[in-house]
Amino acid sequence: MKTAYQNIIRQYWSDVDSIPSFVGGQFIHGKGDDIVIHNAHDGSELFRYSDADESITQKASSAAEIAGKEWWAMTAQARGRIMYIIGDKIRQNLEDLAIVECYSSNKPLRDAKVEVQKVAEMFEYYAGWADKLHGDVIPVPTSHLNYVKYEPLGTVLQITPWNAPVFTCGWQLAPAIAAGNAVILKPSELTPVSSLLVATLAHEAGIPKGLINIISGYGHTAGQRLIKQANIRKVVFVGSPMTGKRIAVSAAERGIPCVLELGGKSANIVFEDADIELAIKGAQAAIFSGAGQSCVSGSRLLVQESIYDRFCEGVAQAAKHFVIGAPQDDTTQIGPIHNAKQYDHVKKMLEIAKKEGATVINNGLPSVPDSTGYYVNPTVLKGQNQMACAQEEIFGPVVVAIPFKDEDDAIAIANDSRFGLAGAVWTKDVGRAHRVADQVKAGTFWINSYKSINVASPFGGYGDSGYGRSSGLDALREYSEVKSVWVETARTPVANFGYSANLE
Questions:
Q1: Tens of pLDDT along 112-150?
Q2: In 3D, which of 148, 156, 204 has the Cα closest to residue 178?
Q3: What residues are paired with 380 via a beta bridge?
Q4: Rg of the chain over all Cα atoms, to the nearest angstrom
Q5: Is 478 a catalytic residue?
Q6: Numbered ranges of CATH 3.40.309.10 in the chain
Q7: By the 8 A CB rule, do 391 and 414 touch?
Q8: In sequence order, what E strands does 344-397 have?
Q9: How many CA atoms lie within 13 A of 137 on its CB side?
Q10: Which long-range contacts (CB under 8 A, 24 or more apart) does 242-247 make?
C-alpha cells in the first residue's frame, strides 16, 4: 500500500514523504513546526511535514480573491460545465484517490472507494445548480419592480475533520464554488492528502488558479491565522463542539458568520413491534461502520424493555461477525481508531463507563484487544442515559444500550441530550413513526433505516450539534448574499422615500 501511495503522489509532487499546501494552483511547502503522522494499524510513522507559515496564509487570501472575481465573471453555465468535469475527473481517478484516502486516513479501502464516488456525485449535483440559483420578483405594494438576486459571499474558509477527509472536502467545496465563491480549505493536519488531490483535479478541470486553496497545517496556528488575517466572508467548520465554539468566537470578533457541523449522540430507538432482525443489523451498521468514527453514529441505542436483553445480545454478535483489520485489506469492514489521541479517549470513556456501572457485553472478546495498532472491538454497553458514556461523544465502535418503557419515555430519553444531530426509530406502527420523528430534536431522522445521507438533502444539527445546513439547496443559500433591488416604474414617481405618508 505504501508503494502504491508513493507512486500516486509522485504524479503531483516530488517529495512523497512530505506534504505541501496548494495555493494559487501551486504546491508550496510550509516552514513551521514539524507535524508527524502515524499509521493507526501498527503505530509506525507514515510521514512528517512542516506546518503552513504566515506567508502561505497571505498567498492563499490573495489568490482566492483574484480567482473568485474571475470565476464569478464567467457565465453560470460555464461554471456548471467545469464542475461536471471535476466530477468526471474524480471518477476517472477513483482508485488512486481511494488508495490515498485509505493510506493517509486509515479508512478501510472498501469505504474509501464509496466515499470518493460520493464526492464525484457532489460536484455533479451542484454542477446542475450553477445556472439555477436565481432569485424572485416580490409583488411589493408600490409602483416598484422589486427583485431579489443571490450573489457569492467572496472567499469562504472551510475547516474539515480527520474522520472523513475526502468526503467532507467535496461536501464543502462543491456548494461553495457552485454559488460563485472562492475557497480556502484547511483539512485536519492529520489528513490533508486527499483534499490536495481533489483540488489539483479541480484545477485540471479548468477552474481559475486559486479558486480552491488547501492549507496543510495545525488548526491552532494556520487555522486561527486564516480566521484572523485572511480576507474571508464565512467560516464553515466540521468537528468537535469544543473546537467549534472557539472558532465561532474568533470569527465573531471579525463579524464573520459560521456554519458549524459538530458532534452528535444520536438516539436509535427500537420498539418491540419492529422487524427485530432488520433493526439489529441497522443498529450494528449505525455504530460499528467506520469504527464508530462518524458524527451521526447511532451511539445511543434506546430499546423497549420487553426486548432489551435479547436485542442487546443480537447487536453484540457483531463483535464475532465483522472483519476487523488493516485498512488496506479488501475484506476489512472495521479498521482502527484513526489516531493515538482518539484511541486514548475511547479507552478512557470505556473505563469511566465501567466505573459508573455500565455492563459490557462482547461475547467474550475484550473491548480493547492486545495489539500494536489502535484497535477497539465492537462493544455494547448496557447503561442509563445519565451516564457519561451516554452523554458524551466516544467516537469509537461503542454503543450505549438504554431501556425505555413506552413512546413518551423513549422521546424523553432521546431529547435528554445537549446534541441534536440525528436519530432513528424502528417500528411497524406508521403513526408512531411519524410522531417520534416529529418530536425528537434532530436535524436528520430516519424511519426503519439509518445513516442514509445524500448531497441533495439538507444536513445539520440542533443544539450543541451546530447550526446552519451544508448540503442541498440550503447550502447554496448559506454560501450566498441576498440582494433586494428596487426599480421605480411609475411615469410620475411619488417622492416617498420612506415608510411615512407622501411628502407634500
A1: 999 999 999 999 999 999 999 999 999 999 999 999 999
A2: 156
A3: 361, 399
A4: 24
A5: no
A6: 267-447
A7: no
A8: 359-361, 379-382
A9: 4
A10: 243/219, 244/466, 247/159, 247/223
Nine-digit cell string for 223: 487555522
Separation between Cα atoms, residue 108 and residue 89, nearest integer Å? 22
CA angle in degrees (0–180, nearest 5) for 320-164-464: 95
Q: What is the mean pLDDT of residues 210-235?
A: 97
Say if CB 225 and CB 57 are below 8 A apart. yes
pTM over 0.90: yes
**193 band by pLDDT with thresholds 50, 70 and 90:** very high
Contact between 165 and 198 (Cβ < 8 Å): no
Specify the CATH number for 267-447; select among 3.20.20.370, 3.40.50.1820, 3.40.309.10, 3.40.50.2000. Answer: 3.40.309.10
Residue given cell 497571505 in the structure block: 58
Start and end residues for every CATH 3.40.605.10 domain found in the chain: 1-262
Rounded Cα distance, 293 and 298, in Å: 11
Q: In what order do the strands lie in the sheet with 136-138?
A: 136-138, 144-152, 480-488
Residue 485 cell numbers, joined: 433591488
What are the phi and psi torsion angles at 458 (to 5°)? -65, 145
Q: What angle do CA 257, 70, 228 make, to 5 degrees?
A: 30
- Assess whether pLDDT exceeds 70 at residue 194: yes
Angstrom CA distances, 11 to 4, 25, 50, 55, 221, stand at 12, 15, 21, 26, 29
Out of 115, 124, 189, 261, pick the active-site residue.
Answer: 261
Confidence of residue 423 (pLDDT cuts 50, 70, 90): very high
Confidence grade of residue 495 (pLDDT, cut at 50, 70, 90): low
Angstrom distance (rounded) from CA 74 to CA 335:
44
Residue 131, burial from CB neighbour count under 10 angstroms (0-12, 13-18, 19+): middle
CA-based diameter of the chain, in Å?
89
- Reduced to 3 states (helix: H, G, I; strand: E, B; else coil), residue 86 is helix
Which architecture characterizes domain 1-262 according to CATH?
3-Layer(aba) Sandwich (3.40)
What 8-state DSSP symbol labels residue 208? P
Which grid cell is 339?
489516531
Q: Name the packing angle between helices 407-415 and 430-439 (round to 10°).
A: 30
